[in-house]
Amino acid sequence: MTKIEVNPGVCGFTSTITVKPAKKHLVQINFVTDCPSLKPLEQELTEADGLKECFANIGESNIYEVFRKYCKHAACPLPSAIIKGIEVASGLALPKDVEIKISKD
User: Fold this and answer.
1) Residue 86 and residue 50 in contact, taking contact as beta carbons nearer than 8 Å
2) Beta strands 47-49 and 26-33: pairing type?
3) Contact indicator for 59, 29 with CB cutoff of 8 Å
4) Rounded to whole angstroms, how far apart are CA atoms 91 and 65?
């Protein structure tokens, strides 16, 4: 099982995603978020094809397609975080934290 915890920044709506390998290239996804706009994804985003998600062009995967229905913020890091978790759960990448640091001078 792969666990991803996301603190997206100033909005403060944290999310936890767990991804487990299922059969063949499929993974099971458990998505829990504090974001009221993304709450419907907790029920809708339950599985994915690891190969299709991880090798799609940026923004063209099913994860991004589903997020477009609910997410009103282009900088939301959650779609990318979920795909990173799918990579690890599918054995296509090693677990390694991703970090974005933002400062203003």
Assistant:
1) yes
2) antiparallel
3) no
4) 23
**pLDDT tens, position by position, 26-59:** 999 999 999 999 999 999 999 999 999 999 999 8
Domain ranges of the chain: 2-89
- pLDDT for 33 equals 97
CA distance 35 to 76: 11
In the block, tokens 């997410």 appear at 71
Is 24 a residue whose pLDDT tops 90? no
- How is residue 76 written in tokens? 């939301």
- Indicate the burial class of 45 (C-beta count within 10 angstroms; 0-12, 13-18, 19 or more): buried
Amino acid at 13: F
Strand partners, 15: 6, 33
